[in-house]
Amino acid sequence: MALFLGAGSSYDAGIPGWDTLITNLLIELIEKELSENSIQMDELTKSIVTKELFEQNNSSPLLQTRFVRSGIEENFEESVRKILYKDVKESSDLLIQIVNLCIPNRGKFGIQAIINYNFDDLVEKLLEARKIKYKSIYDEGMIVDQSELGIYHVHGFLPRNGSEYGVPSSPSLVFSEEGYHKLILDSYNWSNIIQINYMMTCTCVFIGLSLTDPNLRRLLEIVANKNIKGDESPRHYAILKRFKFKLQDEKDSVKSFEKTNRTLLELYYQELGLNIIWVDDFKEIPELLKKIKE
Predict the structure, then answer these.
(1) How far apart are CA 19 and CA 109, in angstroms?
(2) Burial classification of residue 20, based on how many CB atoms lie within 10 Å of its CB (0-12 exposed, 13-18 middle, 19 or more buried)
(3) Of 107, 202, 91, 105, which is closest to residue 150 (Cα–Cα)?
(4) What is the dihedral of CA 56, 59, 60, 63, to 10 degrees?
(5) How confident is the model at residue 168, as a pLDDT?
(6) Hey, how many other C-beta atoms are within 10 angstroms of the C-beta on 57?
(7) Pair type for strands 2-5 and 149-153
(8) pTM assigned to the model
(9) Nearest to 175, CA basis, from 2, 25, 281
(10) 34 touches 45 (CB < 8 A)
């Protein structure tokens, strides 16, 4: 089994989501431009300008981060690192259960790899505390020893202390539009190959991912098309929150249609080779993982 971790897996440990991260980067960009151009602006106006900037690229995270990176290119990675770990905690219930899954069971293979789309090193720190051997992989040519659990940071790695892992001072992050273009155009990029390899050879569980990442969806479809053998059912699992319509009156007709909608979504994700595990609240996920371990 391989675990695929998205932003939601680190959220309860204080790592900001995309919107918060981008908003803070926009604030830093505004502060920089105001200072360099000797412009005075009160706090209320700054907040309004930040909101307007956030909306100017149709709120697209990929376009927003490209815009910010072009404005603070010299210190971009350091700015991301500072915001990333500003309110970080050492762990969360979800991360603890993820790490518990990585403890080898007698007679069982357990977790063979973690594909981590996050930049942070929270999983590494918890594995280290549990004395589980691992190796962080964040670039082409890096190899995992048989005794180590590979943590593949396929979108880049930005640990609190880069020298601890040998990460360069300006790591390559897949964080904006041009980064995704490179992944999509380069079919033989090491991160694409790693993802496809584990999707082809393991049962994969997707945690904390919205499944809207265009490159991930492309890779899932490639693998699903190669795995078609008669009526073979999807082999991978994604944990998603049930979608509920925001209506004041919860009419029976609306509840019935919510079930129909979930069925349609399940059929939709089956085409990508995914079974969906529905939860009403993300706080249910640690208990789900505990049952997998048992």
Answers:
(1) 37
(2) middle
(3) 202
(4) 30
(5) 79
(6) 16
(7) unpaired
(8) 0.87
(9) 25
(10) no
Give backbone dihedrals phi and psi of 273, rounded to 5 degrees, phi first. Answer: 80, 25
* The pairing of beta strand 274-279 with beta strand 113-116: unpaired
Each residue's pLDDT, cut to its tens digit, for the chain (294 residues) gives 999 999 999 999 999 988 888 888 888 888 888 888 888 888 888 888 877 777 776 666 777 778 777 777 777 888 889 999 999 998 999 999 999 999 877 555 679 999 999 999 999 999 999 999 999 999 988 999 988 999 999 999 999 988 888 887 767 788 766 777 777 778 789 999 999 999 999 999 999 999 988 889 999 999 998 875 555 667 899 999 988 777 656 677 777 888 888 889 999 999 999 999 999 999 999 999 988 876
5: β partners: 116, 207
Q: Which two tokens stand for residue 57?
A: 């690229």
- Hey, which residues does 274 pair with through a beta bridge? 236
**What does the alpha-carbon distance between residue 144 and residue 136 come to, in Å, rounded to a whole number?**
8
Yes or no: say if 88 and 14 are a contact pair by the CB < 8 Å rule.
yes
Contact 282, 241 (CB under 8 A): yes
83, 15 Cβ separation under 8 angstroms = no
Q: What's the DSSP call for residue 195?
A: H
**Cβ 87 vs Cβ 1: under 8 Å:** no
Residue 223, token pair as written in the block: 């693998």
Q: Both ends of the chain: CA-CA distance in Å?
A: 15
Contacts of residues 195-198 at CB distance under 8 Å and 24 or more positions apart, as own/partner, are 195/4, 195/115, 195/154, 195/219, 196/222, 196/223, 198/2, 198/112, 198/113, 198/115
CA neighbours within 13 Å on the CB side: how many for 143?
3
